[in-house]
Each structure stands twice: as C-alpha cells, then as structure tokens.
Amino acid sequence: MPWVILLVSAAFEALWATALGRSNGLTQWGPTVVFVAGLAASMGGLALAMRQIPVSVAYAVWVGGGGALTVTYAMATGDEEASVAKVILLSGIIACTIGLTFLKSPSGRDLSESHAHDV
Q1: 59 part of a folded domain
Q2: What is the pLDDT of residues 34-64, one digit of tens each?
Q3: Cα 96 vs. chain centroid, distance in angstroms?
C-alpha cells in the first residue's frame, strides 16, 4: 500500500506543479486552489509513504515520477513541444527511478525494506 500512496502522491505533484504554472504567480484563484490542494495531498502522501519506504527511494520516486508526469502532461496538452529526445530522456528518468528501488545499501540490506524503526 505505501507504493500505491507514493505513486498517487507523485501524480499530485504533477498536478500542483501544473496548477502553479497556470496560476500566474498565484493570482488566478482556480489554479491557486488546485495548487494548494494538490500540494497538501502530494506532501501528505509522501509523508505517509516514507513511514515504510526509505526517504532516499521515496523521494526519488516522488520527484522522478512527478517530473516525468508533468512533462508528459505538458506535451500531451500541447503546452510543450513533444520530441523523440524528450521521450528518450523521460524514459531514462523513469528507468533510473525504478532502478533505485532495486539497489542494495552498502550494508547489504534491501533499500525497499521498512526502516521506520531506524528513525
């Protein structure tokens, strides 16, 4: 369940980033309200997920996933020009983020294990 929460939280990151860009410096009420709500949901989800997912992995997934979704949405809506190079680079971000979740720490512990007791 923490992984689902984390991925939904990354989607909310893309939502608030897009809304912030459309808020005209927080002067447009609609996008500003979406920004604030999306930010709260995104941060709240990240905090919940980090109870069971190490911060190094959770933050990388949150930032990488949210960033990739933000750019993908911008390309899909025509706000940003799509290109093969962008798709390749976005694929690299996603691949590296996924790769981080499978790494072992220097101590040999699986980084995907819960480390809540370490805090």
Answers
A1: yes
A2: 999 999 999 999 999 999 999 989 999 999 9
A3: 13
84 lies in a domain? yes
Going by C-alpha positions, the residue among 25, 24, 16 that lies closest to residue 69 is 16
DSSP letter, residue 105: P
Tokens standing for 43? 């941060």
pTM of the model: 0.81
- The answer to whether the beta carbons of residues 71 and 90 sit under 8 Å apart is yes
Q: What is the largest CA-CA distance in the chain?
A: 50
Number of domains in the chain: 1
Residue 113 covered by a domain: no
The total number of residues written for the chain in this structure: 119
Q: Give 46-50's long-range contacts (Cβ < 8 A, gap of 24+).
A: 46/6, 46/9, 48/2, 48/5, 48/9, 49/2, 49/3, 49/5, 49/6, 49/9
